[in-house]
Amino acid sequence: MRLPEISKTIQVPDNVAVTLDGKKVNVKGKKGNLMRDFSFATITIEGEGKNIRVWAKWPRKKEAALVGTITSHIQNMITGVTKGYSYKLKIVFSHFPISVKLQGKSILIENFTGERRARSIDLIGDVKVKIEPDDIIIEGIDLEDVSQTAANIEQATRVRNKDPRVFLDGIYVYERNEGVA
Predict the structure, then answer these.
(1) For the residues of the chain, what is the DSSP string, one character each?
(2) N or C: which end of the chain has fewer CB within 10 A?
């Protein structure tokens, strides 16, 4: 049975400004500015004062799911411009010492499992990377950029064609935080 309407409301904090241009959402806060286009979605986004309403009339399953998804995206944008996001990755090795370097807009992983050639991972979006002796810290205001950069680093150091119980070398995400120091 279809419901006549599915609706979700987001409360916008005082220190955040959200502007709507059709289905384009622009969020400004103390940490920066994020813009996202939801014109692909068959839902409606309205701004009423300090509230944003995402809704669909007589939604099918897909539209009902999109209401929740887009609400979460907007909420993540608000959290990003107020607090920011940070991921911590641990550099783990037992056989060959891995060295990690930041070179422009990419990260170089050298001596991974004894390889002569360095593995290069491009940074996505506007993220800041700090490399410490055992950790890599990725910070930014866009959750998708921060998490995708961390996932790309983790995937670049996957051990293939070896016993994973013996070869535990790699770089692994071990902490996700809201709020950048």
Answers:
(1) ---SEEEEEEEPPTT-EEEEETTEEEEE-SS-EEEEE-TTSSSEEEEETTEEEEEEES--HHHHHHHHHHHHHHHHHHHHHHT-EEEEEEEE-SSS--EEEEETTEEEEESGGG-SSPEEEEPPSS-EEEE-SSEEEEEES-HHHHHHHHHHHHHHT---SS-TTT---EEEEEEEEES--
(2) N
